[in-house]
Give the backbone structure.
Amino acid sequence: MFDKAFCLRGIYTFLALLASLAGSGCSVNPATGQRQLTLIGEAQEIEIGRQNDVQIVDQMGLYGDPELQSYLQDLGSRLAAKSERPDLPWTFRLVDDPVVNAFALPGGYVYITRGILAHFNSEAELVSVLGHEIGHVTGRHGVERMSKAQLAQIGLGVAAVASEDFRPFAGMAQQGLSLLFLKFSRDDERQADDLGLRYLVAGDYAADEMPKVFTTLDRMSASQGGRVPGWLATHPPPANRAQRLSEVIAGLPPDQRQGQVNRETYLGRLDGVSFGVNPREGYTVGNTFYHPDLAFALDFPQGWQVVNQKQAVGAVSPEEDAIVVLTLAEKNSPDEVVQSFFQQDGVQRGDRWRDDFYYFRAAPGGQNGAQGPEYVGLVGAVQHRGQLFRLLSYTLDDRWDGRGRPMQDAVASFRTVTDRRYLDVQSKKVDIVTLKKPMTLKQFHSQYPSTIELEPLAILNGVSVSETLPRGHRVKRVSGGELPDS
Ligand SMILES: [Zn+2]
């Protein structure tokens, strides 16, 4: 769900950025040897990273395993020390996100999701991706993008503040962090791959492990029919990269191609790591959303797309013309929640519907002063176990006839859950099993069943379903995480 506070902070960041665009110049980048137009000095670069890091941690959350966090920080720091910018405040974080992704911010902030961590099959593969992200920082790709593009976006950002409650319906389905995920060019990506390979070799890791990461990403992409979240959405097709990298690596001296792989110790670290979407943060059965930690349920209209994020959950109609969204309200009373909503420009209070819910009409204004769309909807607050939630639902003003009823039903369906079957769900976990005799993954899957399908399990293990794995081989199995039936 969307987070208003984030939006505001994002704008402050860009205003700070604007203010910082005083000194500019053209300099030679030590990592790439290329001349770069840079409007942002190193101190500002670090400050941009630091500010956005606060938001990332806030929005995505860190994975709650201090041992894995310090492992990542140690590994990343050792690698970054061999880069051309060893003195940045290098910070490596494992974020609590099931999506397979890795990204970097200017100033030396690098993030790995637990989703991608689970998919690596050796430390060398992890180091490959850390190296790639370090390459984006040393190549100053993010800063360069900002220098070129961010000024133009500041105007749009201000307009977004004016209508923060009324984003386009389609925007609901997108990650709130999209502002931060600068898309790099193919040249930037190629350069980050090359720099990553350089750091991998400098760290005495086996270069031959690097293309395997892209092979895994490629298999994921193929298995998802090209519908690709995370890393894959912002990076060029992995197959080309695996091939190009393999060619580059083939040209390296043999001693550089060999080196540390650290497969067994890496897999040991993965034992017990959460896998997939964590149902403790909410899950759907049919179109009912359950939040086990907060012990509530909500029935969204049939066929609507449910989007669950850290501070909110919502659903969008298939035609993207209506929305229902529940947020935690940081107010003292239902009345305050409603009052603050009606204090927004262009929002007109209507009749009371029931309890603390009211109809409203809103014409929040479009960008650059243009007239935006008109909405009609319902807003109100519910108290639940000492917490206050705001429920907001709206549609385009000429769609109320068809949409109003399902919207009202959804809002009215908010209820407390006491059934332990719904409250006791747990996350899936990665278990590491050491084979006592040779077998194929298919045989493994029937002997040690996973709670994911065979094909994704094969991708997770970086093997095919039919190849025979030797005795002593460590295999990832995914267990737990079953959801109750409706
Ligand atoms: Zn990249």
About this structure: Confidence is low (pLDDT under 50) at residues 1-24, 150-164, 170-180. The pocket of zinc ion is lined by residues 132, 136, 184, 189, 192, 235 (CB under 6 Å). The longest strand covers residues 375-384.
